Amino acid sequence: MVRCGIAGWIDKSLIESKAFYPADATSSEERLRFYASQFSLVEVDSTYYGMPKKENSELWVERTPPGFVFDVKAFSLFTHHPTRANALPKEIREALPKELLEKKSFYLDQVPPEVVDQAWEAFKEALEPLRAGGRLGAVFFQFPPWFYPARKHLTYIEQVQERMFPFPIAVEFRKDDWLDGEHRDGTLEFLRLRDIPYVAVDTPGGFYTALPPVAAVTSQRLAVVRFHGRNRETWDLKGAPPNLRFRWDYRDEELAEWVPRIKAMAERVQEVHAIMNNNYSNWSVKNAHQLEKLLEAAAVDVARPISA
Questions:
Q1: For residue 55, what are the CA distances in angstroms to 9, 60, 78, 179?
Q2: Cα separation of 230 and 213, whole Å?
Q3: What is the mean pLDDT of residues 158-182?
Q4: 20 near 285, Cβ under 8 Å?
């Protein structure tokens, strides 16, 4: 089965386009309910920017039909990205050393181990309603370009899987060395031995942060493809917001390149998640529907929302 969806149902550009949500869908609840009538999958991006809250997970379960699935991006601290103190809950923030509180942002290796432990537990607790309700696809750990192939980083991925148990995880890299001639086989075998899904990507290509479109299957349970658009002009533009960096309206022929790949993936796993991260206007939802039609035309089983 293949599920198609987008990254972030409350994306500002999508809402402002007025080309997807009904005019009377003005609240987060109304938008999620409508979105879930159109797709069976969504990626939650807000959990990267701030520690999620358990009550939000409970509301997401309540506001979506049975069978709807959430993929969740891991909190920035856990993926070695810079993190702001105010992105943490008050009780964890208060446990930080004064010197970190005074910084604009800080990194995981600067945080005391006991505070790191507390943050991991808070993150898992917040997502538990999704997991317990059968609504969690996977937690995506998207590592930055400075997370390169090295024993210490492989060890960290193992630690992440242990920390998150029994929550399923998936891994996306942003450093092309992971899939170069020297490391590709080892990278994929490492993930395969641990049943961790590799997140395949569609990108402009040609940048060290834009990995090639390798449709690898490294888990029997799940395979993932994230479509970031092919905007070469903005991909490496420093400080560019997502709706500029990933601004790309896919043509049918571009999406069609992935149909045989996704079909082959679907024959080897329980589910494939295809997620549009090309955040601009209504392009992501439009392209997600385009991909669904192309897959169905190729006799691929596409999950449709129960309420549709």
A1: 18, 9, 21, 39
A2: 12
A3: 97
A4: yes
Task: Provide the phi-psi class of 257: left if phi over 0, else alpha when psi is between -120 and 50, else beta.
Answer: alpha
How many Å apart are CA 228 and CA 247, to the nearest integer? 8
- Reference 186, options 151, 220, 219; nearest CA is 151
Question: What does the pLDDT look like over 31-75, one tens digit per residue?
Answer: 999 999 999 999 999 999 999 999 999 999 999 999 999 999 999
**Residue 31 to residues 18, 26, 35, 36, 38: CA-CA distances in angstroms?**
12, 7, 6, 9, 11
Residue 289, token pair as written in the block: 């529907």
Question: pTM value?
Answer: 0.96
The angle that helices 113-132 and 54-62 make with each other, rounded to 10 degrees, is 10
Closest CA to 273 of 214, 211, 227: 227
Contacts of 134 (CB under 8 A, 6+ apart): none
CA dihedral of 16, 21, 26, 29, whole degrees rounded to 10: -120
CA proximity to 231, closest of 218, 208, 216, 247: 247
Can you name the residues that pair with 141 across neighbouring β-strands? Answer: 171
Identify which of 53, 44, 50, 47 has the alpha carbon closest to the alpha carbon of residue 71.
44
> What rounded mean pLDDT belongs to the chain?
96
pLDDT for the residue numbered 308: 44
Give the model's pLDDT for residue 307. Answer: 57
